[in-house]
Amino acid sequence: MPRVKRGTTANKRRTKILKYTKGYRWGRSTKERAAKEALLHAWTHAFRGRKEKKREYRELWNVRINAAIREEGLSYSKFIAALKKHHVALDRKILADLAAHEPEVFKKVVASVK
Q: How far apart are CA 86 and CA 45, in angstroms?
């Protein structure tokens, strides 16, 4: 029976884990057990962060729309209600971008729902 050298799977797993933790501080980038632990925490935060990013951007868009719409003499809630009533299908991301970069177009949108 031929000789079998063991450990290829374990070595691949170890190098894969350590590749993910490259740049981590102290032993978390070189020691397998510490690296695994660090990745468990890091990936949890990364997953949660992807959800939080969506929340934070929507908050930012709302603030920008509110700031722009106050200059037109409306409140944010009344503006959004008027948009829905007039079936204007612009989302908050587009409205915030218009308010920041294309104020004339934003004013036309506001005039159309007033």
A: 41
- Summarised one tens digit per residue, pLDDT across range 56-88 is 999 999 999 999 999 999 999 999 999 999 999
Tell me the two tokens of residue 79: 């503006």
Instruction: Give DSSP secondary structure letters for 61-91.
Output: HHHHHHHHHHHTT--HHHHHHHHHHTT----
Q: Which CATH number fits domain 8-113: 1.10.1900.20, 2.60.40.1120, 3.40.50.2000, 1.10.3720.10?
A: 1.10.1900.20
**CB neighbour list of residue 103: distance below 8 Å, 6 or more residues apart:** 68
Share above pLDDT 70 across residues of the chain, in percent, rounded to a whole number: 100
Give the residue extent of every domain in the chain. 8-113
Tell me how far apart the alpha carbons of residues 103 and 13 are, in angstroms, rounded to a whole number: 54
Instruction: Classify the C-alpha dihedral 99-102-108-112 as positive or negative.
Output: negative
